[in-house]
Design brief:
It is built from 8 helices and 7 strands; from the N terminus they run ββααβαααβββαβαα. By secondary structure, it is an alpha/beta fold. The protein has a single domain, classed as Adenoviral Proteinase, Chain A (Adenoviral Proteinase, Chain), CATH 3.40.395.10. The protein has a 5-stranded mixed beta sheet with strand order 3-4-5-6-7, sandwiched between helices. A hairpin with a 4-residue loop joins strand 5 (134-141) and strand 6. The longest helix has 24 residues, at 156-179. The N and C termini lie far apart (58 Å).
């Protein structure tokens, strides 16, 4: 079946009632068809729902090996916009203090099942390279002061686009962490030692492109990003050989279908997952 070809007869594609995943409502069976078949690019809706599932797994899973949360796809749009304004404004610190949206994410607001960043060691980001429409994964490590990039389709063209997008994270995240007094809440991060030694808290993080990853053959970058994220959450090595993208697509499709059906029948969310309304306060002046 070719991309763009109609999958269902007119009217048959509707899901009634719709599947309410909290972060997105799905009323079209094509959503699952796209997820299930190799070569079909995943949308922001696919990634937002999968990453909501992964946030729940990281937050409520039993004996999870690391402390981690994720953002949604909107976060990248916001941080790229803020970085553009930051650069145009001469990289003035006061521009950071005006950017409430990013601070709300960091404080545990904005999304269902969010976790404040001072309670985790890693944050995972689904990122779309808009110039070439390609999904990559970002992961920040607070202890290592590094922004890691996972890309399933590496090329010179991709590397240039990735560097441009990753710079926003590497530059802005340290500034916002200081603005929300992140390090005052993290006695386990000794800023005078190790990778923090000789650096200001506001210095940019390092950017590292992860190598030795499985490489996509079709338009499956969204599935690779979701799988990379799950391996990180499980603290498992990402396999290069025997990376069964068709099986992984089917697995995510089955998981989300059953989750949506169970939520219709029994309810699967809790009040604690809802994003709390943030207090409208400005970040305090950052210390160097």
């Amino acid at each position: 079946m070719q991309l763009g070809e109609e999958v269902y007869l007119p009217g048959d594609q509707k899901l009634e009632p719709c599947f309410d995943f909290e972060v997105e409502q799905i009323d079209d069976k094509t959503f699952f068809h796209t997820l299930n078949y190799s070569g079909r690019p995943l949308s922001s809706s696919h990634l937002n729902i999968i990453f909501y599932y992964l946030r729940k797994k990281a937050k409520y899973g039993i004996n999870m090996p690391i402390k981690v949360t994720t953002t949604d796809t909107l976060f990248n749009n916001i941080i790229q916009r803020v970085f553009t304004e930051f650069v145009k404004g001469g990289k003035q610190d006061h521009l950071i203090d005006r950017s409430d949206d990013i601070m709300e994410y960091m404080k545990g607001f904005r999304m269902h099942c969010n976790t404040p960043w001072h309670q985790v060691d890693h944050v995972i980001f689904p990122i779309n390279l808009a110039e070439i429409w390609h999904w990559i994964l970002g992961c920040v490590s607070f202890h290592k002061r590094c922004f890691y990039v996972y890309d399933s389709l590496r090329s010179r063209k991709h590397k240039k686009a990735i560097q441009k997008v990753a710079e926003a994270y590497a530059v802005l995240i340290p500034l916002f962490l200081v603005s929300i007094e992140f390090y005052n809440q993290r006695s386990d991060i000794v800023v005078e030692n190790g990778l923090h030694m000789g650096k200001k808290l506001t210095d940019p993080f390092e950017i590292e492109l992860i190598t030795n990853l499985p490489t996509q053959q079709n338009s499956d970058c969204g599935v690779y990003v979701a799988c990379f994220a799950e391996y990180i959450i499980e603290d498992l090595p990402i396999p290069v050989a025997n990376f069964d993208v068709d099986g992984l697509r089917a697995r995510f499709g089955i998981l989300l279908w059953h989750y949506g059906r169970n939520k219709q029948l029994h309810g699967e969310s809790s009040e604690s997952e809802a994003p709390v309304a943030p207090k409208k306060t400005r970040g305090k002046k950052r210390k160097k």
